[in-house]
Write a structure and sequence with these properties.
This protein has 163 residues and is mostly helical. 85% of the residues lie in helices and 0% in strands. It has one domain (6-162).
Length: 163
């Protein structure tokens, strides 16, 4: 693969999209969310802040994953392209489930609960349901991050194998 080949440019573009998304997701999970919950005056306010950032991360993951999958499938030998596309597609799917399936359920439940989940008893069915949905959202984000990391590694392996 020559330095200017279209195949190399597609792999680099994929790596940039995947790396940017993975960096944003890591920043949210490791810095923004913990900082919001540690410094804001209420958990409800911290949840509102993180809840405003999450859709951007999830939609970005859908776009980055779909773009990287499409770039992997356009031309070139399928040896590493198919696994790259599968991992990138998994990123997009994980983010789509989190944003389009789990997030609306969380939103409806938050509206039904009112301003503070903390005001509910620990065994209240709504609080338990919220905790379950929150855990699912975190799991889908984590799975998306793993898929993005795997796709990114495959981008580097592809470049290394061709050089």
């Amino acid at each position: 693969m020559t330095a200017s080949s279209p195949a190399l440019l597609r792999v680099v573009a994929s790596a940039v999209a995947l790396g940017a998304w993975l960096g944003a997701a890591l920043l949210l999970a490791a810095v923004v969310a913990p900082a919001a919950f540690a410094t804001l005056p209420s958990r409800a306010l911290a949840g509102a802040v993180v809840g405003r950032v999450l859709p951007v991360v999830f939609i970005g993951g859908i776009v980055a994953g779909a773009l990287a999958a499409a770039l992997a499938l356009v031309g070139g030998p399928p040896t590493l392209a198919r696994p790259r596309a599968a991992c990138a597609g998994s990123l997009a799917a994980c983010c789509a489930v989190a944003q389009l399936v789990i997030a609306p359920r969380i939103h409806r439940l938050r509206e039904a609960i009112g301003p503070s989940i903390d005001a509910l008893a620990a065994d209240d069915a709504r609080r338990v349901a919220f905790g379950r949905l929150h855990g699912m959202s975190v799991a889908w984000l984590g799975a998306g991050m793993l898929a993005a990391a795997a796709a990114l590694v495959l981008c580097f392996v592809t470049v290394r194998a061709r050089s």
